## 1
Amino acid sequence: MDLILCHTTADFDALGAAVGVSRLFPGAKIVLTGGSHPAVRDFLALHRDEYPLIERRAVHPEQIRSLVIVDTQKRDRLGKAAEWLNLPHLEAIRVYDHHIGVSTDIPATQAQIAAVGSATTLVVEELQQHNISLNSVEATVMALGIHVDTGSLTFTQATARDAIALSWLMQQGANLRVIRDYIDPGLSAQLQELLTTALAELQTEIVSGYTLAWVMLETKGYVTGLSSLASQLMEITESDALILAAQHFIEPDERVTIIGRSRIPGTNLNEIFQEFGGGGHSQAASISLRSVDTRKTLAAILNKLKQQTPQPPIARDLMSSPVRTIRPETTIGEAQRILLRYGHSGLCVADPEGQLVGIVSRRDLDIALHHGFSHAPVKGYMKTNVKTITPATTLPEIESLMVTYDIGRLPVLDNGELVGIVTRTDVLREIHQEEVNWNHVDRDTLPNYRQGAYQLLRDRLAPQLWELLTKAATHAQQRGWHLYLVGGAVRDLLLTHFRQSNCSSPESTFNSSLLLTDIDLVVDGYVANNGISAGVQLAQELQQIYPNTRLEVHGAFQTAALLWHKDSTFDSLWVDIATARTEFYPYPAANPEVEASSIRQDLYRRDFTINALAVRLTSPRAGELLDFFGGFLDLQAQQIRVLHANSFIEDPTRIYRAVRFAVRLDFTIEPETESYIRYCIASGIYSRVQGDKLPGLSTRLKGELKYILEAPYWKRALKLLSDLGALKCIHPTLELDRELWRQLRLLERCLQQRDRQQNLHHWLLRLEAIAAHLSPEYRVQVATNLQLPDDSIKRLGLLDQSQTEVEELLPSYQQPSQVVQLLRRYDVPTLVLIAIRTHRDVRRLIWQYFTHWSMIEPPLNGNDLKILGYKPGPQYRIILDELLAATLDGVIEHSTNFEDLRNWAIAFVKNRYPQ
């Protein structure tokens, strides 16, 4: 006999999962080990006969062959049926559960556990894998399980997997009318009475801007459906968290049921309730106790919940700084142009002393422009009764001000000085960022989405790097700044974690710490006007701690870099420290203009979402992962997505970066991003790369080409660039046709052979081969635009002439010496380019020259000639060249005996040049 066990007081998720398992194991029976929720009991009153249910007392333990436990990993939740786990003759114990981080005491032989919203989802996925269909009654109870445990996909533990499972159950015929009736069955008369009492006795407290509510009820006996009462009570009172305790007396002791509900981000009721012997989910948990002091237990749970409740963000965390201001005399037209340039929806107006005097919104400017007042000053249209906040104003207070007064932006004043601004967008991002990301995040790969990033840094970075970041954060924090680790380091750490987590091989476990060679830090915060940026100041302080470093300050914006070179601790480490900044492109494909800004705008200026991730290193909220653009989800989806539609227009070289990251990381380019690339190419913006008007853009393009062509994946990258039409960024006529691809393959063969004797710049030769495929009149132009070395430009300019000479003369030569004499007039890269472009007979002779003839030397040298009595002079060169020719052509009889060969060579020289 195979049995499927539900936990005591079975809910719809346990029942739905059990019904699904009964289809996976035909003939298995379901045992409700100890009662059920009222709604489940009512449902079974009508549908019991549809499912293979049996009573526990009808089971003969000696006949049990295997057990399947659903929706729990704790034996004490199986009631008396837990005794069956100890049967010595059991062949298997399987577990299906969705509670992560639970210390199980069930000796499972097989476990299917994942962080989804419902245990039923895991069973549905297995049914789909085995192509097992359901009838309507089975699909209905399973859909109920997912609906109830995920709040119809509204609870934060709900995942996309739950939604897919629910969709499949609907296809199988789940009855929506039945589901609707049992999802919201209403409260019984007893619960209605308790609701009235609870509303009268409810106590509340505001903690960090969140409303915590609690109530203790006394009942005549055990009351079913208390979880529905707690949910109803929470909705009516609009509380953010609720703890409900219901105590009753049963001889010989007092018993209490405590139920918790929380909507506060960062809280985890499961962790709290587990300490007292209960459990559940982060948002919902419960516990049943006996012989305890109810008031003390309730107070202890409340205290732990208060400790978990996070401090709300303050204006200093949210604000953009410094603030871009205009003068009251600025015209409406100019103010509108500033808004368009920086993408703002409003501007602060300050007097010559920098004091805030008003705010003008985009709406105000639009109205003025509509009426033809583009030349009027903004002081006639700005709002002067400005609501302001301080750096310590909390997010709930900011939100309340915005809603009450319908304000889109709040200036931040510190002792009367304008130090930042908080916009409605900042507030919405902060409110929704965690929910949006957490609802979609794969919690198997990163259990704590925000704080997990900090733990990841600490656990996986080499200790010396972690110490460096910690010291940098301490110094930044002392100055009131925020410090962030940004870009590639965050991306690669998360990606390494994902891939390690998804690798099933035990040998793949991450055991060694990661010593990065390139770290980008961004400082965000208000800096006094002392002429030195925050990044430089922090770099100078760190150099005092690490005197072995070299400090470089470069660029008009004073970005600083600390460099270690072959250091015993850091090896060759490069740490860039910049002040948060934004970029503005005055016209397409131009060099960007850089200005001070906030961390949000700093991340927005980056190329792709996966490179726009940051980890906050300073308190409060140290370790928070900043992800304003969905980069975390794109890492999981393994796709390259650009931040905004004009990104490639502003900088066409980002097309090459997109391809490089896609191929290097084995990602795909997101479809909309690909459409932006194709639009950019079709617009002809690449033509701006041609000529010498934009040397900065040409430099960036050359850099990207170097990265791609020196990487092991260069062939795949080049093909992808060709498929996108992006080779036109090099020249409008360039295509990766069959002939060019053939030449590049021949080049690889040549480089593999030739580099045994001579180190060549492979990436540069590949780029020269690509440029050489253009018509002769374009080659030098392209090479010059890409700022290739002078010898490369000269080589490409003379390539046709050199190739013609070789092709005309080489086939007529009969002796190897003639071939060598001709070919050694050209440098190796020229011969390589000729070889891959010419016909087979000429190429064969060049290959033979590379692999054999060029390595042959005359048996004698200048010293030997001197010993033989020949006077030094130009004659030496003539003698040695003729001696080499004789050796190549076999005139001097070849011998493996070096002395014999020397003797023949000496005889040859004396005979040809008697003294």
## 2
Amino acid sequence: MPHHHAPARFDRDESLRSGQLTLGDLGTPLSEVTFVVVDLETTGSTDITEIGAVKLRGGEVLGEFSTLVRPVDSVISPFVERLTGITNSMVAGAPELAAVLPAFLEFARGSVLVAHNAGFDVGYLKAACGRLDYHWPEPQVLDTVRLARQVVPRGEVVNHKLGTLAAHFGTAVAPDHRALSDARATGEILHHLFDRFGSYGITTLEELSRIKPAGWTRRRTKLHLAKDVPHGPGVYMFLDGSRRVLYIGVSADMRTRVRSYFSAGETRGRMAEMITAAQEVATVPCDTHLEAQVREVRLIAEHAPPYNRRSKNPERRTWLRLTDDPYPRLAVSRTPPVTDVDAAARLGPFRTHRQAQQAKRILERLFPLKQCTRRPGSAGFAPCPSGELGQCGGPCAGVTDVEAYRSGISGVLDLLAADPADFVARCRERMLDLTAEERFETAADTRDAMTSLLGALAAEERRAHLTAVPEIVAAVPAADGGWEIALVRWGRLAGSAAVPAGLSPYPAIDALALTAEHVDPPTPGLPGTLAEETALIHRGLSDGRTRLVRSAAGWAEPISGFGRSHGRFGRLDRGPAV
């Protein structure tokens, strides 16, 4: 029985808090990371004489650690005494490093270590752990010297020494070669650097850790291209000097997303190459996020940008067609069906030719399908290779009764009729046999082929049901309490609108119905709505948040069929350790 999607009325007093996920939701925000900023003073050779550290999160000081350390293997040189003010008499009564180090490691546990010229300080601490047989926890480390070189260029400062940066940023604590003072100053500098990186869209620890200096410097010089990009949902396009489209993307906040391409967080080599060639950024603002996603799919299909990997050449689809013969076989076809009868004799479409071939092989393995192209009664007719192995149920294998042949491939005929039960049962049986024989890789191949086939058929099943409805109006609750309206005709987005909070959406819906794009009903053999667009719309309508306002005809989906089998197969049959 079909499951019907019933229209819903709006509740004007309902509290709505859902919204779109953006890149800002990914990674660990710097404001939520606990940092321990550390500084060491030494004798000038192998011994540590002072440890100072400040624990910070979100700009707030959570704690401080400070202690002198009595050196064991050396004494403080006169030069170091004059530089730091720490004398041999001052450290004579201090604890040794063996007693101090565990306390510091506990203070810093679970934090990101920060130091100015971190190689020096962290190197001393790591060596001390090795020498004293303490476990070094391998913390993530940030070096404020390296970070400063990315966002505080020469010319703005003469060098990147701690005192120079402290004076440049006007820190409240002046570094004085004492460990705690220097750690406090470094902590202040760290947050000034975070402000600089934030202006380039770098707001997470993961982005900050992936900085590649050379690429970052080149990309930063192109930041002016994002100057006129607006906030809000839409599609952005990077163009070269001849206005050829290089790359197309979509975002709920175009300005933030485009700026991120020029930041250190963008580490993809192809994108660095694309940014180097880009001379302009064009945008297509959209009323809703769904409209932006759909326009991205259409524009990629139209322009085929060289730096986009997905959505290009959507017309390149492949089907498995059951031939119209007394003993039909499966044939791979890249020609769309031209009639309803032709469509009913096909499985697919598959996204790639390889997926179709993979599905053909597994079906021929599970069912005694004829595989050769020779006709019965031809001169010198002999069993094909599959017939010799007993895997062919065609006339070359001795089957001369048409009904007997069709009975043998009834599971394939059931698949064409949207009943995958026999197909799934045979697949499970084969997987169990292969697992019992410890042929786990072959079992995994079988599982993946079946999942791919069922997924393709489930997608086509969803598309067929949605493209059969003349018109659907749906509403998505917006983060600000308003609504995002979508009008869909024959599975294609014909129009969308955003309704602010506090206003009735019905006038906007009525206006949209009059101004939306006209869409012709789907016709076999003619280019229709892009499959990826229909999939986006279906996903939006079925996400549990979207309200179906009205529908020109019943929109229904089967409670059994490919979609159900695909989900159940994926859950149940990942059993073998493959």
## 3
Amino acid sequence: MGKWMDGFMDRLAAVHEQNLEGGGQDRIDLQHSLGKLTARERIDLLVDEGSFMEMGALVRDFREASGQISKPTPADGVVMGAAEIAGRQVMIYALDFTVMSGALGDQGAWKIAELVDMAGKEQVPIIGMFDGAGSRMSLKNGAIGLYGYARLIRNYCLYSGVIPQISLVLGPCTGPMAQIPVLSDFTIMNENTGFMWLGGERKSEDAGNADFHMEESGQVDLLAGSDEEAMELTRRLLEFMPQNCWEKPLTIASDDDPDRREEKLLTIMPDNPKFTYDMHEVIELIVDNGEFFEIKEDFAPNLIAGFARFDGMPVGIVASNPDELSGIMEPDSSDKYDRFMMFLDTFNIPLINISDTTAYPPGDKWERKGVIRHGAKNLHGYANVTTAKITLVLRRSYGGSNITMGCSKMGPDFIFAWPTAEFAPTGPESIVLAVFHKQLAKAKEDGNYDEVYDFLLSTLREQFSVMTFGKAYTHYYTVNEVIDPRDTRKRIVKALKASASKRELTPKKRRAIKPA
């Protein structure tokens, strides 16, 4: 190699060495003292060893060369490139907090925008890691500000539904950059170091932290106790996703018997319908090896959502939880359902609905919160879902919830019910009081109110029972089959295999207009 080439190689090596140092050892030490890994450490931990191919390594804030800023800006604070995770190709980027406190600069914004566009064209998932103090914006001395930011946002939006998008909030994520994780399909947040805030005054200490966004805003899907756990959650999440919307997620070999019967399912439900039970127990008994990967666990817990497998086949499960607010479908749970359902449909993942709910809550409080509007999103969403859909009704299926959870005339591929299932326009108790109020008033005068009420209620329950409605196959309140609860797993496995090649078309249109 000649001296001429030596010079270029030396310059390139110097760039790479500076990039590895980031903002300097002092800043790296500070990052570690805060319980955080550096951008490069995070990428190395997440991806397969030796698979990361960096892009944009030479990029710098253009003001560095002109002396307008004194601090170095290696890679302009954005480490990015192509990599593999479990042998699957991905595009990945991480904001480097050691460089200008991770604030996003103009060239950094362009870098990410181009990477998202590349991921979309190559049809591979995009993963972003956020740890930065807002935007590095300046309009002085000819600086143009974040010119590339609009392109970044647009590319995220354009490729939504084309490729999976995962964001990890591992430090501060403020200002306009806070919109990126929310635009993504899933957001993972470090509960000790993550902070997400658009702007304005914070009126409580917890505002913007991980618990706040999990429990209050609903803008986080998974919480991690450390950067290391966040990487593990990301790898697990990817296991349920295909590379893009044109592929199906991978089925893996399972050592759990697809015909396994579960005797415990006969004893989970209480004898008295007024009592509750935890739907997690049912889910864990029927999925492969009891492994359920729940999302938004502490947001609207009356509705459970998450991923699992049946005989190795990945599915998304949406289940009402009687143990929380009797499993009602209020606005937050409706939003949670809607977003997850859209993701499943987009990426060809079967939807399993498990229903035991008293429907949408009535009254002034809920009407003011837009319970109709939020519920209408679920109706609109389910009606347009074309992936495989299986419904299982365990006990109560009342009112509008019967429709949104996949009733027989909303187009599920299969609908099963336990013999304990009841279908009704509203709770039988309310119907007894409304329809038989004169008889009940007389019974109160005669002193046998409880006896008359219990008789009317039991008679009505029998009429609303699936054992009665199931006798008419074309009825609105019916199912394909009433099943032995112990055979639930086997039935779902067979239904998934039967619908594996389904092809459902909706009316051709430019786009559907979902209720806001």
## 4
Amino acid sequence: MSLKRNILDLRKRKQEVQLGGGEKAIEKQVAMGKKTARERIMSILDEDSFHEYDLFVEHTARDFDMDKKVLHGDGVIIGTGTIYNQPVCIYAQDFTVAGGSLGLMHARKITKIMDHALKMRVPIIGINDSGGARIQEGVNSLAGYGEIFYRNTKASGVIPQISVILGPCAGGAVYSPALTDFVFVVENISKMFITGPSVIKTVLGEEISMEELGGARVHSEITGNAHFFAESEDQCFDQIKSLISFIPWNNTQKARKFPPQEPTSSLNVEEIVPSDPRRPYDIRDIIRAVSDSSEFLEIMENFARNIVIGFGRIKGETVGFVANQPKYLAGVLDCDSSDKAARFIRYCDSFNIPIVTLEDMPGYLPGVDQEHAGVIRHGAKLLYAYSEATVPKITVILRKAYGGGYIAMNSRHLGADFVFAWPTAEIAVMGPEGAANIVFRKEIAEAENPDEVRKQKIEEYKEKFANPFVAAAKGYIDEVIEPAETRARLIHSLSLSDNKVDARPAKKHGIPPF
């Protein structure tokens, strides 16, 4: 009977603690259009796979009458579970308990599950919904954040780290998501900022809403702090599961291989790219035309749209696509697109994911704004990332490949393993119009009919450089291929480079142009 009483007591205690801040607080959470922390975990993980740890942890604060308050689980839920039957570690801040504020024990629970994830070499998923540091615990709260940031950095490049912003995430708390690999946000629910609207009004006298300052659209379209944007929590959870299916569990593995599937037959690669090099098209159609089942998971879709990054599969194997987008700004490189691509390249390299580059761009974006924004430093990040990467690197030049942009987009000169070009490829220092005006400036100026001579010189330049054969003759391009051969060449190249070894000089680490 004693054991039975103990079991009943355990069940009662569990039931009480699992209510978090209580039914009224849960009702308030639901009224805001938000799921509870526990519901969020269950929505992401496989059914009945969650195992919770530290359920009965309590805070240790004694100041400001904190000794009289009971904070179940200290406002955070941690544990392990599975996604597609593969183990993951997860934590979720519980806004119903003291606004999900971070105190010492709250932080210790998070760092405990982070340590567990790193030790077991499995992904860590963090769900952020917190009012910030618990003021009543003073420096202990700040210490807690520091411990989390340190672990984020230790785990970087070793295990996948995913942050889900499902409520406020302010002050020092925002640096943990910024240190992770992928950040998910949801419209009208996610809020991220260093200083809130009230502080900004006090210090600067400016009035702005939380949504305008750090809402989901702001971070997915303007700041680039978010990688995935969703219109609902359920859509967000589906995005997480989709991402998880493309990436390996740690840096010693490769992503799980799927049965190969042919691309959708309706996508004919030869019909996508216009013959006129000045006409735009959607590069994502090319990606889908060469990917298994035409499936493509785009990352940072709404930020720096002149470049496209994301995951697809070729012959069942995950690859990372980096592609110029002629549909926006002609696919030029600039500060934001360079940052976006460079970070993704480094992620792929860290987790053994081959990189396929699709090139069609006129170079770097000119202008005072870009120069003053540091396009030299930002552009150099892309050069560094490609040069540093040791995974298989394959480039296909579709149309324009001008100037420094040609070099930056995984050229042979930066260590590309395979470089292919379509017959429509144009590889030159600059476009024919600009080049003709410089190279033949004197002849054009002295001609009786400058416009006619300019046209002739432009055609002369095109004939010499607006094709891939000059570069091919010098060995900078491995093969000029028909567009319809693109997928077959990618399959062959990936198969051939499956056991690639790229030795580099011994060093502690390089110094990227941060």
